Amino acid sequence: MSKKFSKSIVFVVTVLVILSIFLLINGGFNNKKNNELNSRYYDSFVSSVQMLNQGLDQIDNNKNSEDIAALVFDVYTAIIDVNDRMDFLKNNAATSLELDVLENDLIWLRINYASVVRNQISDKDSFNLQVHKELEEHIQLFINELPKEYEKSKDFDQQFSRAAERIEPIMNMNFFSK
């Protein structure tokens, strides 16, 4: 009976070892897959911020009022895209980032910039280049401080948080001063 009992124990232990190895391998694959997905979400967000910066860079006083109105509208659509990508990053990425403050700042920007678009369309002479250049400066600082690529680390989280602080001054901007 002891031989039968020992063979049973050896069999159970062998099955458990094989199962454990399988779970470890599968778990490592899932972590790699999650990091890849998080990296794509992050890259998409960064790309949308870069598109916003490019849109802001195209605005200058050398354009006629119709061109400026179109460019201001393009910037507004880029702001909407940044907000959408932020929502996507926040809701789908398995990340430890605290995104609530940044999300709030970007929503504030979207709401207030809608008024700039409305003003630019209805009053072609209301354009304020200085405000756009200040906004572009903050967006550029944000881009420069963002981590180059996603990684699940405390350093990444800290660098991202420092970059997000560059967006906070936008909350104090007056989009309607001349």
What can you tell me about this protein's structure?
By secondary structure, the protein is mostly helical. It is 76% helix and 0% strand. It has five helices and no strands. It has helices at residues 2-57, 65-92, 100-122, 129-145, 154-164. Helix 1 (2-57) runs antiparallel to helix 2, helix 2 (65-92) runs antiparallel to helix 3 and helix 4 (129-145) packs antiparallel against helix 5 (154-164). The protein is rod-shaped. The N and C termini lie far apart (95 Å).
Beta-strand content bin: under 5%
Helices and strands: which structural class? mainly alpha
Biggest sheet layout:
none
Average pLDDT across residues?
84
Number of strands: 0
Distance between the termini: 95 Å
- Give the radius of gyration: 25 Å
Compressed to H and E, one letter per element, the order equals HHHHH
- State the helicity in percent bands: over 70%
By DSSP (H or I, 4+ residues per run), the number of helices equals 5
Overall, the morphology is rod-shaped
Indicate the low-confidence ranges by residue numbers: none
Please give a handful of descriptors for the protein shown:
178 residues; 76% helix; 5 helices; 0% strand; mainly alpha
Topology, pairings included?
Blueprint: H1 2-57, H2 65-92, H3 100-122, H4 129-145, H5 154-164
Short account of what is shown:
The chain is rod-shaped. Helices cover 76% and strands 0% of the residues. It has five helices and no strands.
